[in-house]
């Protein structure tokens, strides 16, 4: 494919190819000179219609480490506020001889829509509650780094599964790689179709944590909820928040992940987020190597 729109378009070989390429780029990133000439003369536009810290900066760093030319577009400071459409916006950016578009958008399917209407390679940096493919790739890559392999690992995703593009992309990616996946959260935040994805469902946090090797803790996405869901944040923390007392009471030492941004004291306490069992900042570090790999392979259209 020319694009990376979702994990659903990738098979196991594609994912393993991305990981092997990311291994090489991670070696490069640990050298004193981190830059390679691979994407010289490729121009990439990062267009963000929704806020981001990690994804936006790590795409930009990945592009710069690959020697691409980079332009950044934030919808809030653009002519979108004057009524310009998504297709017009992107076609105007492309008229300036841009080759690739990395896009985050609040609407599910925005990247798929764009890929059908403009002549550029599209990378999905998160589309509403649908997919966040590079996040899932960097998460699975971080599990592989911790354990040597993802196959057979037991991963529980805890929290707001219903509104989470990270959850859907993680489930698809981990299943492709042979992991066992469970979701854990209140019934109101777990979609009815989840069983069809071949994942287990658990509503008791302790049981879920005692089952798993890895717990990926998600935040409650209040910005995607038009009505007030049960439970309240206070109730959510009491039932599904991960704290040190729970972590230390488990039968084995599990690995704790979080895609960020963290709401400290809600889904995870600081002493867990900052503990040696947490690989949260390793995930962020790996994001640059994974995005370098994705852009490099797309530029060669090998994915
Ligand atoms: N994990 C993630 O997508 O973070 P940002 O929203 O800050 O990019």
TrEMBL record:
Binding site residues for L-aspartate: 82, 165, 219
Q: Does the keyword Transferase apply?
A: yes
The biological pathway it contributes to is: Pyrimidine metabolism; UMP biosynthesis via de novo pathway; (S)-dihydroorotate from bicarbonate: step 2/3
Q: Which NCBIfam families match?
A: asp_carb_tr, PRK00856.1
Q: Which reaction does it catalyse?
A: carbamoyl phosphate + L-aspartate = N-carbamoyl-L-aspartate + phosphate + H(+)
> Alphabetically, which GO biological process terms does the record hold?
'de novo' pyrimidine nucleobase biosynthetic process; 'de novo' UMP biosynthetic process; amino acid metabolic process
What name is this protein filed under?
Answer: Aspartate carbamoyltransferase
Give the quaternary structure.
Answer: Heterododecamer (2C3:3R2) of six catalytic PyrB chains organized as two trimers (C3), and six regulatory PyrI chains organized as three dimers (R2).
Describe the location of the Aspartate/ornithine carbamoyltransferase carbamoyl-P binding domain by residue ranges: 2-145
Q: What does this protein do?
A: Catalyzes the condensation of carbamoyl phosphate and aspartate to form carbamoyl aspartate and inorganic phosphate, the committed step in the de novo pyrimidine nucleotide biosynthesis pathway.
EC main class here is transferase
**Keyword hit for Transport:** no
| Record-linked SUPFAM superfamilies | Aspartate/ornithine carbamoyltransferase
Q: Which domain of life is it from?
A: Bacteria
Pfam families attached here?
OTCace, OTCace_N
Question: What EC number(s) are associated with this protein in UniProt?
Answer: 2.1.3.2
Q: Which UniProt keywords apply?
A: Pyrimidine biosynthesis, Transferase
The positions making up the signal sequence are none
Q: Where does carbamoyl phosphate bind?
A: 54-55, 104, 132, 135, 260-261
What does the sequence similarity comment in the record state about its family? Belongs to the aspartate/ornithine carbamoyltransferase superfamily. ATCase family.
**One Gene Ontology molecular-function label:** aspartate carbamoyltransferase activity
Instruction: Show where the Aspartate/ornithine carbamoyltransferase Asp/Orn-binding domain sits.
Output: 151-298
